[in-house]
Amino acid sequence: MKLLFRLGNKLIPSVFLPGLVLASNGFNDLTDSMNPDISSTREIVYQAKTVQFMHDSAWVDKVRKLNTFDSNGNLVQTETFVVDETDWILKSKTLIDRDNEGNLSTKTKQVVRGGDYHNRYRQQYIYDDNGLALGTIDQKWHRNNWRNKKLTTNNYDGEFIVDVTVSKWRQGVWINHKLYQISYSDVGQRDEKISYKIRRDSTLIEKNKVSFVHDENSALVQKSYFSWKDSSWVEKARVLIEYNDSNRPVSRLLQKKDSSGTFINVSISENLYTDEGVISSRVKSWWKDSAWKPFKRYVYDHENPESRANLSALDGTMIPQKVLLAKAFPNPFNPVTTIQYELSSREHIVIEIYNMTGSKIKTLFDQVQLSGIHSVAWDGKNTLGQDVAAGVYLYSIKAGPSIISKKIILLK
């Protein structure tokens, strides 16, 4: 059966279009390979994201992603559209399944070809009996079967991931390919991450390293990138991150070293926020001819129903901003911190504590509350009443389908 999608006042059959290809070089490969966070992270929650490129001094739409959430506020589907002249054409969708505890279990990407959905990639998440994330298996759909491609395995020291092994599937067995080793500061913040190539004889060859610098608010303010050369680490690039008065990131400046050892600008990513503190857009610019040249923009839509109505006939769940403000004080803390938040309307509120691997530590609150300012305290204990280790944790405030998460640091 053909898939039809509404664009304006007409229904058209969906078609598959090739993806956009962006230029890359060795320097980009260095920063990109070390960029993904190994620990569990919280991404921007949005209803729609439009990717635009600068053309003839104007922003031109290229790609749009639409998210669908379940009644618990969990992301269950992402649809990707591309522009064909003046119409938005569905290109692919990603289906997200979760287990009974709400943990990710499977992500499946399907592409649209000939008006039908076809499997393309799948990622399966592995946990132990206590819900600890052990790794992922990446698979590709080939000849009506899922074929193994990549295995990522996490190794822990207590609650912290200290190394990650990446293996490739070769002739029916997993062959170790890369190793990432991660070290932490005394308060549980990531200090360094080193990548190695694993030879067939299991020896390790140093490749790249990234170091992390945090400020007094535990916010990441600098990442430095190194390559292994002549038996030592050579700094190649750095990222400088700036924040506004609300401790939200406003710019991310990428610089690389030239032949004289001087840092020169490469690119910058700048965030804009609404009066409520919700990100509205992100602009990326290249440094060229001693000036910043914008080339790419992400526009976020958090609650506008028009973003979906103009694209397809499928219904989506809107995500209004329910939590207007949230902060914890003191932070860092020992032994108790107070989480304060403001609600825009009466809502069912769930406040939970997670460690940096994504495992839930404790539910602090699970009730209906009226609009206004509220607070709840956490004493550094888990559900069993046991003291947890010093380190970095996340508190999550779920108000209906709206979710906000922030870091807190427990000291001992």
Topology (SSEs and partners):
Elements: E1 4-7, E2 10-13, H1 26-34, E3 48-55, E4 58-69, E5 75-84, E6 87-98, E7 104-113, E8 116-127, E9 133-142, E10 145-157, E11 160-170, E12 173-184, E13 190-198, E14 204-214, E15 220-229, E16 232-243, E17 249-257, E18 263-273, E19 279-288, E20 291-301, H2 306-309, E21 323-329, E22 337-343, E23 347-355, E24 360-369, E25 372-378, E26 391-399, E27 402-410
Antiparallel strand pairs: 1-2, 3-4, 3-20, 4-5, 5-6, 6-7, 7-8, 8-9, 9-10, 10-11, 11-12, 12-13, 13-14, 14-15, 15-16, 16-17, 17-18, 18-19, 19-20, 21-22, 22-25, 23-24, 23-26, 26-27
From the alpha carbons, calculate the radius of gyration and give it in angstroms.
Answer: 23 Å
What gross morphology would you assign? globular
Counting DSSP E segments of at least 2 residues, the number of strands comes to 27
Major sheet summary line: 18 strands, antiparallel, barrel
> What would you say the CATH architecture of the largest domain is?
Beta Barrel
Total helical elements: 2
Return the string of H and E elements. Answer: EEHEEEEEEEEEEEEEEEEEEHEEEEEEE
Integer tally of domains: 2
* The top level CATH class name of the largest domain: Mainly Beta
Low confidence ranges: 1-27, 29-42, 305-320
Mean pLDDT comes to 82
Helix and strand content put the structural class at: mainly beta
Q: How much β-strand is present in the residues?
A: over 45%
CATH topology category name of the largest domain: Lipocalin
What distance separates the N and C termini?
61 Å
Helix percentage: under 10%
